[in-house]
Design a protein that fits this description.
361 residues; two-stranded antiparallel ribbon; two-stranded antiparallel sheet; membrane; threonine-phosphate decarboxylase activity; cell membrane; cobalamin biosynthesis
């Protein structure tokens, strides 16, 4: 007789029992991945990725960037027709999405076989913490808030490090909006998404996501050179970011519910109304949640290289943001990160308890 919690089966050869045991293996796999994610998130929040390491060995995103740049030079030739560029773009993305991920997955398997589980989890979390941008995003956006109090020229310089639009055309309100929008969007694709994929696939899952996201940043542009070659990168990035963008809006909503100066109901209303109107299929979700919670308007018209893009507004509030609004956005971001961390810890505990119950039954 094989027992499994509330179920009892005649033997392990019984199909239902085999399915239950397979499900428990998945539970253990997810429990270890989420524990690794908790370690990674904690390390990133406390220390981030040391600048000395960047100077000495670079950053994992930079390593992937070298691979992407090499494929771009070799497979995206100016003499190729559009059809060939489309095809080569899919070939390049196949390599980018699988090669780094496969290398890390192999390292995961070897570590799990040779190291005790707690040691493997801690080591994996320490190494994978470089794939989350939680602390880096906080520092870069906070630098805009600090610079804004020194003057508009300093604020423009600070915001130029995190946005692609022309800072010379931005007044103080536009600088603050740009910083809040960057904070919201990068909370999704720089924090929530890598941790989500890490929870599902361990460090290899996070590497898969960061490889796709980096490819989109480098070649997923609608420029003459990359419109065809980068098509696969842009579409795949939209796909892998889809769950995280919705989840990031949920974290912001939950965080707003715990803060007296935030409007969680307005955040929910703005998400339902405006998230789908954004120029991006994913960025609109965290931006709408942030705009509603803060009671401000985001997005709207902006200038890129002298060309004005007439984007719809997100939110109902005022558009003349101040440094105080940016500080409130940073506080909401920090609380949303805490909410996410709390959920990850709770999931890890629940899954491990389920596994222990299975082992002792």
């Amino acid at each position: 007789m094989c027992t499994g919690g509330a179920y009892s089966f005649p033997c392990l050869d019984h199909p239902t029992c085999a399915q239950y045991c397979a499900a428990m293996k998945i539970v253990l796999f997810l429990a270890r991945n989420i524990s690794t994610t908790v370690v990674a998130a904690a390390c990133d929040a406390v220390a981030g990725y040391p600048q000395r390491l960047v100077q000495r060995i670079g950053h994992p995103v930079m390593w992937v960037g070298h691979l992407i740049g090499g494929l771009d030079r070799r497979l995206n030739r100016d003499t190729d027709c559009d059809r060939v560029r489309y095809r080569n773009g899919f070939v390049a993305m196949s390599v980018i999405a699988t090669l780094p991920c496969a290398a890390v997955a192999l390292a995961q398997v070897l570590a799990s076989r040779r190291l005790p589980p707690p040691v493997a989890i801690i080591a994996g979390g320490l190494l994978a913490s470089s794939l989350s941008a939680q602390r880096s995003l906080w520092e870069h956006v906070r630098a805009v808030s600090i610079a804004a109090r020194q003057g508009l020229p300093q604020a423009r310089v600070a915001v130029s490090h995190i946005v692609g639009r022309d800072p010379a055309q931005l007044d103080e309100a536009a600088v603050m909006r740009a910083a809040v929008e960057t904070l919201a969007e990068n909370f999704s694709d720089g924090v929530v998404a890598p941790l989500l994929w890490m929870s599902l696939g361990g460090p290899a899952g996070a590497v898969f996501y960061k490889s796709v996201n980096t490819a989109d940043s480098m070649i997923g542009h609608r420029t003459p050179r990359h419109e065809c070659f980068g098509f696969a990168a842009a579409r795949l990035d939209d796909l892998v970011n889809l769950p995280a963008s919705r989840l990031s809006a949920a974290w912001i909503l939950l965080a707003a519910m715990t803060m007296p100066d935030m409007d969680a109901r307005a955040a929910w209303r703005i998400v339902r109304r405006d998230a789908g109107h954004h120029r991006s299929p994913n960025a609109g979700w965290p931006e709408a949640a942030m705009a509603g919670a803060l009671g401000v308007r985001l997005s709207g018209p902006r200038s890129y290289n002298g060309v004005v893009s007439h984007e719809p507004w997100v939110g109902d509030g005022r558009a003349d943001l101040t440094p105080r609004d940016l500080d409130r956005a940073l506080a909401l971001y920090r609380r949303a990160c805490m909410v996410q961390g709390g959920v990850l810890v709770a999931l890890s505990v629940m899954l491990r308890r389920a596994w222990r119950a299975h082992r002792t039954s």
